Amino acid sequence: MAMRPRVSVLIPTVNEEASIGSVLDAVHAALRDYGPYEILVVDTTSIDRTVNIARERGARIIPEPRRGYGRAYKTGFAAAQGEIIVTLDADLTYPADRIPDFIRILETGEADFVSGERLSGLTEGAMNGMHQLGNQMLTAAFRFLYGFPIRDSQSGMWAFRRAILDRFELLHDGMAFSEELKLETILKGLRFREIPIVYRTRVGDRKIRSFRDATANMVWLFRKRFGWVPRRRGI
Asked: Has residue 73 got a pLDDT over 90?
């Protein structure tokens, strides 16, 4: 009988054949001493070899035809079996070799949610000027609206115990899901910690639309703060 995984690593994908193999190899290398684990690739109708490559590298494929960054993660959260959930992107921007550091902080009880802080560790060319400005403005708005000294509200590399998801009200299906997940952790009085990570130039086509996504995320921060959103629970 297969053992229940201790850690679930979630990776959303849309046409990531240029990088997904390297990302999965790095995850396997990082977790080889961490007992049973699983890698879930939540794929949104890729038309290249992403799914085949991921399956060959031992990932479990979770199809999610509905578009949306947050939608992909909600689907992945529902399918994950590990006690600890770790996330990262499929484009090699995030350092998979730091996953053990995230897990260690959770297991020693130092935090309930750990997020990678990218802005102090950008490699050359990892973010263009507009992308950096958008991240800085959104993080400043988060700090102002919610009175919490977060350093990178938009990071996509996190780790947390799956059990805390039941306490969250996660409403957004798009890019604002990243800031909403962190915000829910803070609003529910859970221990939130950031650790600096290196953020690298992405491999493959760029998916983020800097101005449009930043504007939508800013609007969501204000809507969430002042209650201008429909209320529902769950994922």
From this structure: yes
Per DSSP, the three-state class of 72 is helix
E-assigned strand segments in the chain:
7-13, 37-43, 60-63, 84-87, 113-117, 158-161, 192-196
- Distance in angstroms (rounded) separating the CA atoms of residues 13 and 123: 23
CATH number attached to the domain at 7-226: 3.90.550.10
- What is the distance in angstroms between the CA of the first residue and the CA of the last residue of the chain? 29
Sign of CA dihedral 198, 94, 214, 124: positive
Give residue for tokens 């053992």.
Answer: 3
161-208 pLDDT, tens digit per residue, is: 999 999 999 988 999 999 999 999 999 999 999 999 999 988 866 555
Q: What does pTM read for this prediction?
A: 0.90
Per the structure block, which two tokens stand in for 217?
A: 């995320």
Of 57, 62, 60, residue with least CA distance to 44: 62
